[in-house]
Amino acid sequence: MRSAASSNVSRIPLLALLVLAAAPPGAGQGVETLRSTGGLPPHVVGEFRLPAVYQETPDGRRFIFDRRGHRVHRLDPGSDRAAVVVEIGPEPGRIIGASAFDLGRTAGQRFVVADAPDGRERVQIFDLDGRRLGGFGLPGRALPRVMLDETVLSGIGTLEFTGREILMSQPELGGLVTRFSLRGQPFHTFGVLRRTGQESNRDVHLALNAGIPRLAHDGGYYFVFQTGIPMFRKYDARGTLLFERHVEGPALDATINAMPTTWPRRTHDRGVTLPFIPPNVRTAAVDRAGNLWIALAVPVIFVYDPNGEKIRTVRLRAASIVQPSSLYFPDRTRMLVAPGGFEFTVW
After folding, report:
1. What is this structure's pTM?
2. What is the 3-state secondary structure (H, E, C) of 12-75?
3. Which residue range(s) make up the domain with 243?
4. 336 assigned to some structural domain
5. Count of alpha carbons within 13 Å of 77, Cβ hemisphere only?
């Protein structure tokens, strides 16, 4: 292979070589299939009811958030058994009705878990051994505006822990992104709600403005809309809009063509009746190079560079096609995916 490349190199202009070298794998091609290169041992994965998040600290400790089991597990380097570090329960220091987990961008010595004892949203901060360091509750009762297979994806389910603050989607507060202090004070809300044509129907309008906030590598923020027309926005560190991009591609054509204009209402187990609006985005994450990965409801992932240009379309495969509930990048080359506890080499 090397000799064949050497024989042809003189025929390729230098500029073309530079473009080829700079392009990410799969650029300009169709859908790439990334195959799992590792992950959690099957006997460990079998211990969990629904491993919704799989993340790793710099020293190699792996954390698994079992959403259905209401527990957080830790797998230490060299161990073949996962230890429970946070148990089930409504009292402080335990979790019940949990919807989100995050080690934080720096993956230092803390993690956060969002849960909802008795339907009231709560965020708790723990050290890596599961000792509670603090927490706060949100006013009112949790409203499951966006759900997928009985899992609430909106509200505290979208949180990201930056190490210094917590980002959430709370369109009820008047903006797309709300920044909370670690004591639970919402000190900055930004991002104008998009026009939906449903402004007269508050529940639908807010659901169509639900999304996933993510910290960008340049200190700004991404916001990925979960429902309605797939799109995302990027803001600078002050919350000023930099650009907006529609999420488009052949994989989404059928979804967009079938987009409804009215939505049925259903009563949830908390006694509240809300319009049923399924998500078009399952999750999103920013890799160590600053690229935004958006996992869609259809089994593909679109990858955008920091300037908002789409550079890859990716499908994940382990034993079968993987539909992510969580993506995490512990370094520049690996991506950890839940459910399943898989590892993929991405660059």
Report:
1. 0.89
2. CCHHHHHHHHHCCCCCCCCCEEEECCEECCHHHHCCCCCEEEEEECCCCCEEEEECCCCEEEEE
3. 52-276
4. no
5. 6
